[in-house]
Amino acid sequence: MRNISRRTFLQIAAGTAAAGTAIPKLMDMKAFSAAMADAPVTKVPTYCNGCSTGCPMFAYVKNGRLWKVEGHPVAMKNYGTLCARAHGVATDLYNKDRVRQPMKRGADGKFQPISWDQAFQEIAEKLTGIIDKHTGNSVVWMAHGGKESYASLFLDEIGSSNYITHYSTCFTSKTNAWDKMAANQLTIDIRRAKYMLFAGRNYGGAIIPAAMKQLTAAKEQGRKIVVVDPRLCELAKIADEWIPIRPGTDLALFLGIAHTLVSENLYNKTFVQKYVFGFDEFWNANKDFTAEKAAAICDIPAAKIREIARDLAKNAPAAFLDPGYHGLHNHYVSSTQIAQANVIVNALLGNFYQQGGLMPSARPALGSLKPAKRLQPEKGPRIDGAGVPNEYPTVEPGRGIAQHMPDRIAQGKVKAIFMYHFNPLRTAPDPEYQKNIAKADLVVTIPVDWNESSYYTAHYILPEHYFLERMEPPKPVSGNISHDFPQIAMRMPAVKPLHDTKPLLEILKGLTKAMKIDDLYPFTVDDEISAALAPLGIDANRLKSEGCIELPTPIKPGFPEKDGKPACGTFTGKIEFTIGAFKLHGRPGVPTWIPPLVAPKGDDEFRLIHGKQPWHSHSQTNNTPYLLAMTKSYHGTWMWMNRQRADKLGIRNGDTATVESRIEYPGQPARIVRKNMQVKVTEMLYPECVWIPSAHGCFSPNMTYGFGQGANYNDFAPSRVEPLSGGCMVQEVIVKVRKGAS
Ligand code: SF4
Fold this sequence. Notes:
Elements: H1 6-18, H2 29-38, E1 41-47, E2 56-62, E3 65-71, H3 84-91, E4 103-105, E5 111-113, H4 116-134, E6 139-143, H5 148-158, E7 163-164, H6 172-182, E8 187-188, E9 195-199, H7 209-220, E10 224-228, H8 234-238, E11 241-243, H9 250-263, H10 269-275, E12 276-277, H11 279-286, H12 291-298, H13 302-315, E13 319-321, H14 335-348, E14 358-359, H15 405-410, E15 416-420, H16 424-427, H17 431-434, E16 442-446, H18 452-457, E17 460-461, E18 472-476, E19 487-491, H19 504-514, H20 525-533, H21 540-546, E20 548-550, E21 561-562, E22 565-566, E23 575-576, H22 580-584, E24 605-611, H23 625-633, E25 639-642, H24 643-649, E26 656-663, E27 671-682, E28 689-693, E29 734-739
Parallel strand pairs: 6-7, 6-15, 9-10, 9-13, 10-11, 12-23, 15-16, 16-17, 24-28, 25-27
Antiparallel strand pairs: 1-2, 2-3, 4-5, 4-17, 8-14, 18-19, 19-20, 21-22, 24-29, 25-28, 26-27, 26-29
Helix pairs in contact: 4-19, 6-14, 9-12, 9-13, 9-14, 12-13
Iron/sulfur cluster (SF4) binds at residues 48, 50-51, 53-55, 78, 82-83, 85-86, 207-209, 617.
């Protein structure tokens, strides 16, 4: 058992007493330990909320209080383990900075607690007025992800097209390209691969526990792992080879690999002839883009590029170029083409739907409730322009463009915004620009904590139950890494709600009732569970007790075919090297080299790049005391700088430096952003860039643990939209660095 300090003990005793248990508020440590040791333990299945991986786990509860969490042994995402973030995030149940009841911002700008009834009545009144005057299409629902079905019922009812995810601030260029070219987001089969190439993907930082277990096993078995990254990231540390690359030039590397595969006749011709459309168009546009040309751009020797291509080909189809995630997608002007070139390299290897290569996720076919048809108003075009002719026609409407809401508010197109577990003031570029969200007529946030978007922009805050207090319908456990059998998991409440909060379904029931919308949610979570499980023949009670269940029918390798013809879901049924929708809108269908938007010039200029730390999930965990303790011990808020470059600026390890960027919008004066950061001086970083972790830079004073620690990469970037996929290009930013605080 861990050591419990007197201070922790008193907090625990107080918390336990508050939860209404029999433990007296004051007791000595010995008696408390005995009471805790002897108390019966309840084991409750749930899944982690520490990142989008959603690892199934068990919460153990003693005396009504969370005692510990443990990974679910069946789950393919984690095989019984959890990463550090999961343990930290679980303790946030008791974080004093949770929003504890509905809040309303007064005329003085300060928040006051109000009742749920008052909140529902006032929001309903304002929202009805907005819809009557400006139509339902002036209402936007933004969400990091999750519970889209609840939001969609609401948006359909009021006539809004505007469900917006966080993808445009994360990895939308990947989903856009892969869905258009392959009609699927395929996953890597680490367990059977013989050669694995990762570029801009750090499974050791953005951890998926099962992926790391599989990768360490692969390493022990002598299967090859190569990591291309400007930084010696955590995954690179266990790889056979770390290849540093000039940031912003991964497209050149991928095109150089593709060129080698084709020019040296190493590609899988049978696969290409049968399952690829548009090969000639790609090759005609790129036949001069040799490994040597790529080398001059990306600063990886041509011989090494050829070696990678040959090794990939030698081991294909049990070899892959990882499709990537946040690392390269949305960060550059070329992010869409990077994703396209990734599809092409993999297809040239013939590894689609092949074990050891890329396999589809094994997903259970869950059922769903079929809501009765309702009379619904006609919707207008999407307010963010995603999928709209003459705006951003090739951006996926299902994902949207999150970062330019302030512009849409200024244009009078957006009048009301709901933000469900979404914090664009931290996760989208330029917080000062994002603060203008407050200018909408109505801003409602539904968070668990006092995030920046709530603190600076909300008119009302409607706090949701913490994930350990909620029951939620079943979901597939799948994605990112391949697993042969479908799995299903669900979330049960581990403890009683500690505060005056509600689950989202109850919030929307209350709000729509106050809007006099009849029975929009005529169901319970139990009804959803029954509907989801009906096609699988699994008893709800079994899932509620086991938490994660594996189904017996495996996925099989083999390219999808119908009547003997390719049928992967694209228009041609084949992997499409050229995207028709891009050509339709005057853009090339195939990827060709695109230089970065900006380049560092003087001794004091650097490209700013960022990445995840193994113990944080971007801004989501930046107020978790246990994880911040790890930050402190690892100097986790420091900015990394290459030693040779630091020497030129006279900067030594641990020095404070001023980091500044210039933010400029058309027709407006430029603004200089300046932050003080401590510097980690290292050989483990490509010299032309500086790297900062993505977790820090909290500026909500009500997030008392994380407030004021470090800086955020979004602080330095203007808000822009990459036209093909809607990404925000946050690594197309140059910062100037000088020794000393500003
Ligand atoms: S990877 Fe870690 S933080 Fe993410 S869901 Fe799994 S255990 Fe939680």
